């Protein structure tokens, strides 16, 4: 089948998509956007989190056909050209990236949290990121990064 | 799409990151990783590539009486189906013993053992075609009890020499010594998984010379190259490996997974072949941490001085040897912990069974005994009526102590200080009487308690871990460093085969070169087998060993700069140094710009670093200087336990660790945080459940690793007691925090509940007794 989807603001078309393919496969293998990661393929680790019509979703659990006519924003679409999004900047600055495989999904989840709430409590940050597994960092530096990005966003909004 | 030849190398020349040893510069790969542009091995893509897939045995133990691949080969889109008969070289590989078939021939020894492989146009065609391969099995009774495997000679032999991989005994002082106060216990530890997030994956591309280029995620390029070439029947130089982005490792990438398979398929089809395991296959496709059963007896004086330790420990290695010999070596030599023990009798068995193969995982061979002896230390403290931390401090080894193998510790060993430091850290407030946020309680947002039935406990865990390879191995690394002028600026390039698996080695290599050569701009060449062997990114050894090699190569380059400068400037090399891109005299006078000295002529040097020799253990007494260095860490855990539901919330987890020299302080802290999380996982949730040789939870739905809700805040205290024998005084960092976290949490749960809890992970039913 053919799938038309807007990805990171750009209309994309994929032909010969097999019906069982996931949105994750479509993004990674057909549209050349490997940023979203394939770590568990059953919605448990959050590494493939993308925005689907503005709502975070595990791309591995969305059939490619379900994305027809919809808007997807991936980690590749967070930065504004060469300018990193504040959440990306804070992840780099605070050492929240080690192997980095969980990073794309965590960034989308954290981005969504800060968009909704730029003064999250620690408990709110933990709840928002609870669906994203990280095996390297122990999460402490990820928390630091989210606090920093939220504070910067709150400051900018003032 | 990303093309293969490292699509985006993070070390761009316009890199603005600076910082030398002792600073915490940013990772050079950080920006690419947050942009989603960093090329992990599962992201690789090549025009015309095929997808490889593996057929695995459903049985833990069976004879193979026939394999029929015709139907699978007939599936449209399938290009090759291969079995053991298609392995052109030696169908046996292994890190220590060559006992593992690339593809099973006449029998399978574990559930998930690879039997056949195929390549197809689409991953789904590959998966479907696997079902068309017909394998005839004669199912056999699996051997699943490691203790029986060690002693029962009537069991069927899984390998020609029987079912014992290694037995090691250690006898020190009077093995039959007696003591005033004696405590004993039997401890078990479940099978933990590395659970790295990036799946096993790689892309093999057939080359015009009849060889193959493999881009992959691994921990040790050269050991993969040697094993793969042997199976392919090719000389090593025709099997070229390049490291792609690695999504974590923790020991799980030390053994081969898809290396031989992808190369076989690429060579057979003449096309690039990509293999990517899914999560379930990943659980079957790599080795795990050895489960163990350990019998311990400690004897002490009435005052609390350890008199003896006697222990017997059984490590289940599963179907193939992998790192089992090393686990037995580490397990026995580290069996009494960082304590002075004058008398000991220790025995360790590592066995074959039909359980999943076990091999390397962070804390190799030290995790198991540490859980046991630290449980014993608490039991002993209770028997003596002593504070558990004080008992540990009283018996702590120090510089000049002899350990259980008779090796005298000739470097700092601040064990007592580490324990004292975590003991002195402030405890979290006991606020259970006031209204509390239920998210802070066991059960969290599930709203299972408002504090009733919740009890708090505090526990300690202390460990000793050997750093780097041991027992007489010549452990070394190789580095090539090139200094040249690019765009008018001196630039250093570092090339090693050392694997960056997430730990930050790329940053560290830059830091060393910046410090040694006094140049801000340093690029790190992608790791591949065209550089000399760097050994494995494991055993907490890369900062020490590859760091030493980079230092040596940098200093050799600097010496040539000085010689060249001396000739140009007509003076001696005496007192010259490099700083800020300039050549400086001993009195601080700037003699010349480095760029002027170098001109158009680059300077390149290759050097190795070998650590001090170690020695094998005496087979009878287990005495010997087996290890080159030890790392030490101490944890204190505070837990809340809901005794009605058996739920545990780790409230706080504090750590003190000696790292010799904090080369990159932020990265050191990050290693301690991440390692502690894995130790927490083993304490309360992580276990591969195996019944009758079959894995029951090969998914992230059922194999639980800690989430951000499970990890508590940590206080971390980093000591720097330089090791005079190590480059820059460093001490390996990565493993100790994983090891000591587990017993600290287990001891805290015991302190809270008063229960024996002789097994980790501690599950709710162990606490409720249901």
SSE map:
The complex is a heterodimer of chains A (158) and B (770).
Chain A: E1 3-7, E2 10-14, H1 23-30, E3 49-52, E4 55-58, E5 71-73, H2 86-93, H3 103-116, H4 122-129, H5 140-157
Parallel strand pairs in A: 1-5
Antiparallel strand pairs in A: 1-2, 3-4, 3-5
Helix pairs in contact in A: 2-5
Chain B: H1 30-35, E1 50-56, E2 62-68, H2 70-73, E3 78-82, E4 107-108, E5 114-120, H3 123-130, E6 134-139, H4 146-151, E7 164-172, E8 181-189, E9 201-206, E10 212-216, H5 221-232, E11 239-243, H6 259-269, E12 273-276, H7 279-285, E13 292-300, E14 306-316, H8 324-333, E15 343-351, H9 367-384, H10 388-395, H11 415-424, E16 454-467, E17 476-486, E18 489-495, H12 505-517, E19 522-524, H13 542-569, E20 577-579, E21 582-584, E22 590-593, H14 594-598, E23 603-610, E24 629-642, E25 647-658, H15 665-684, E26 690-691, E27 694-695, E28 716-719, H16 736-753, E29 759-760, H17 764-768
Parallel strand pairs in B: 1-12, 8-29, 10-11, 14-15, 18-19, 25-28
Antiparallel strand pairs in B: 1-5, 2-4, 2-6, 3-5, 7-15, 8-13, 9-10, 9-12, 13-14, 16-24, 17-18, 17-23, 20-21, 21-22, 24-25, 26-27
The first-to-last residue Cα distance of chain A is 48 Å
Count up the helices of chain A. Answer: 5
Q: How much is the average pLDDT of chain B? A: 96
Radius of gyration of chain B: 27 Å
Q: Which parts of chain A are unreliable, with pLDDT below 50 for 5 consecutive residues or more?
A: none
Class derived from helix and strand content of chain A:
alpha+beta
What is the helix/strand order of chain A? EEHEEEHHHH
Structural summary, described in words:
- The complex is a heterodimer of chains A (158) and B (770).
- Chain A is of the alpha+beta class and 158 residues long.
- Chain A has five helices and five strands.
- In chain A, helix 2 packs across helix 5 (140-157).
- The longest helix of chain A has 18 residues, at 140-157.
- Chain A is globular and about 45 Å long.
- The N and C termini of chain A lie far apart (48 Å).
- The model of chain A has no long low-confidence stretch (mean pLDDT 96).
- Chain B is an alpha+beta fold.
- Chain B is 25% helix and 25% strand.
- Chain B is built from 17 helices and 29 strands.
- Chain B has a seven-stranded mixed β-sheet with strand order 3-5-1-12-9-10-11, with helices on both faces. A six-stranded mixed β-sheet of chain B has the order 7-15-14-13-8-29. A four-stranded mixed β-sheet of chain B has the order 16-24-25-28, sandwiched between helices.
- In chain B, strand 13 and strand 14 form a beta hairpin.
- In chain B, helix 5 packs across helix 6.
- The termini of chain B are far apart.
- Mean pLDDT of chain B is 96; it is low at 1-11.
- Classes of the chains: A alpha+beta (158), B alpha+beta (770).
């Amino acid at each position: 089948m053919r799938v038309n989807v807007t990805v990171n603001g750009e209309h994309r078309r994929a032909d010969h998509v097999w019906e069982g393919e996931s949105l994750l496969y479509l993004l990674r293998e057909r549209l050349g956007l490997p940023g979203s990661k394939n770590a568990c393929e059953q919605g448990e680790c959050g590494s493939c989190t993308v925005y689907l019509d503005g709502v975070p979703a595990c791309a591995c659990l969305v059939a490619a056909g379900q994305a027809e006519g919809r808007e997807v924003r991936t980690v590749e679409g967070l930065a504004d050209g060469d300018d990193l999004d504040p959440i990306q900047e804070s992840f780099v600055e605070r050492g929240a990236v080690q192997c980095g495989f969980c990073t794309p999904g965590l960034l989308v989840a954290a981005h969504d949290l800060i968009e909704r709430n730029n003064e999250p409590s620690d408990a709110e940050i933990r709840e928002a990121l609870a669906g994203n597994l990280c095996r390297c960092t122990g999460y402490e530096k990820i928390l630091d990064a989210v606090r920093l990005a939220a504070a910067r966003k709150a400051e900018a909004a003032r | 799409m990303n093309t293969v030849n490292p699509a985006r190398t993070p070390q761009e020349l316009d890199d603005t990151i600076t910082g030398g040893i002792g600073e915490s510069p940013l990772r050079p790969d950080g920006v690419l990783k947050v942009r989603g542009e960093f090329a992990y091995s599962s992201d690789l893509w090549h025009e015309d590539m095929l997808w490889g897939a593996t057929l695995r045995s459903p049985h833990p133990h069976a004879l193979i009486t026939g394999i029929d691949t015709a139907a699978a080969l007939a599936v449209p889109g399938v290009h090759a189906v291969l079995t053991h008969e298609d392995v052109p070289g030696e169908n046996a590989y292994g890190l220590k013993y060559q006992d593992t078939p690339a593809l099973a021939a006449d029998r399978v020894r574990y559930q998930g053992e690879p039997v056949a492989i195929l390549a197809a146009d689409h991953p789904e065609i590959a998966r479907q075609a696997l079902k068309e391969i017909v394998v005839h099995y004669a199912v056999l009774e699996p051997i699943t009890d490691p203790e029986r495997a060690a002693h029962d000679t009537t069991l069927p032999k899984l390998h020609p020499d029987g079912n014992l991989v290694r037995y090691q005994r250690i006898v020190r002082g009077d093995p039959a010594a007696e003591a005033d106060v004696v405590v004993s216990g039997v401890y078990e530890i479940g099978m933990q998984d590395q659970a790295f997030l990036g799946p096993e994956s790689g892309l093999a591309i057939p080359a015009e010379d009849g060889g193959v280029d493999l881009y992959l995620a691994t921990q040790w390029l050269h050991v993969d190259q040697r094993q793969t070439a042997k199976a392919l029947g090719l000389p090593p130089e025709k099997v070229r490996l390049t490291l792609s982005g690695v999504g974590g490792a923790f020991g799980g990438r030390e053994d081969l997974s898809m290396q031989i398979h992808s190369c076989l398929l690429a060579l057979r089809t003449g096309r690039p072949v990509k293999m990517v395991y899914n999560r379930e296959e990943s659980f079957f496709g790599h080795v795990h941490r050895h489960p163990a059963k350990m019998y311990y007896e400690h004897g002490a004086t009435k005052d609390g001085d350890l008199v003896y330790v006697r222990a017997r420990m059984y490590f289940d290695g599963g179907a193939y040897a992998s790192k089992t010999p090393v686990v037995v070596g580490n397990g026995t030599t580290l069996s009494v912990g960082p304590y002075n023990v004058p008398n000991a009798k220790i025995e360790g068995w590592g066995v074959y069974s039909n359980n999943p193969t076990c091999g390397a995982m962070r804390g190799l061979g030290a995790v198991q005994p540490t859980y046991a002896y630290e449980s014993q230390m608490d039991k002993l403290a209770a028997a003596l009526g002593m504070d558990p931390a004080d008992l540990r401090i009283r018996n702590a080894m120090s510089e000049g102590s002899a350990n259980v193998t008779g090796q005298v510790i000739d470097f700092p060993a601040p064990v007592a200080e580490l324990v004292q430091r975590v003991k002195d850290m402030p405890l979290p407030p006991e606020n259970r009487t006031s209204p509390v946020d239920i998210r802070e309680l066991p059960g969290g947002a599930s709203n299972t308690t408002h504090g009733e039935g919740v009890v708090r406990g505090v526990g300690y865990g202390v460990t000793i871990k050997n750093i780097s390879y041991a027992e007489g191995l010549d452990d070394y690394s190789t580095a090539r460093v090139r200094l040249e002028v690019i765009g008018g600026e001196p630039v250093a390039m570092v090339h090693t085969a050392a694997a960056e698996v997430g730990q930050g080695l790329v940053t560290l290599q830059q830091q060393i070169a910046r410090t040694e050569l006094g140049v801000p701009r340093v690029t790190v060449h992608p790791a591949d087998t065209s550089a000399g062997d760097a050994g494995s990114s494991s055993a907490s050894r890369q900062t020490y060993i590859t760091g030493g090699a980079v230092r040596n190569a940098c200093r050799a380059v600097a010496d040539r700069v000085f010689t060249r400068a001396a000739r140009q400037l007509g003076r001696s090399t005496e007192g010259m140094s490099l700083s800020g891109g300039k050549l400086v005299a001993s009195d601080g006078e700037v003699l010349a710009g480095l760029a002027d000295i170098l001109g158009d002529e680059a300077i390149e040097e290759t050097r190795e670093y070998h650590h001090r020799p170690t020695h094998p253990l005496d087979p009878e007494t287990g005495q010997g200087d087996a290890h080159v260095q030890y790392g030490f860490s101490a944890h204190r855990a505070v837990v809340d336990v809901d005794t009605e539901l058996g739920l545990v919330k780790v409230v706080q987890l504090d750590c003190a660790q000696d790292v010799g020299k904090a080369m990159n302080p932020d990265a050191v802290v990050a290693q301690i945080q991440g390692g502690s999380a894995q130790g927490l996982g083993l304490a309360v949730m992580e276990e591969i459940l195996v019944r009758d040789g079959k894995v029951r939870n090969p998914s992230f739905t059922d194999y639980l690793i800690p989430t951000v809700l499970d990890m508590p805040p940590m206080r971390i205290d980093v000591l720097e007691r330089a090791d005079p024998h190590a480059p820059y005084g460093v001490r390996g960092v990565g493993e100790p925090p994983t090891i000591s976290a587990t017993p600290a949490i287990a001891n805290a749960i015991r302190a809270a509940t008063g229960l024996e809890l002789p097994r980790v992970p501690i599950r709710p039913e162990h606490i409720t007794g249901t």
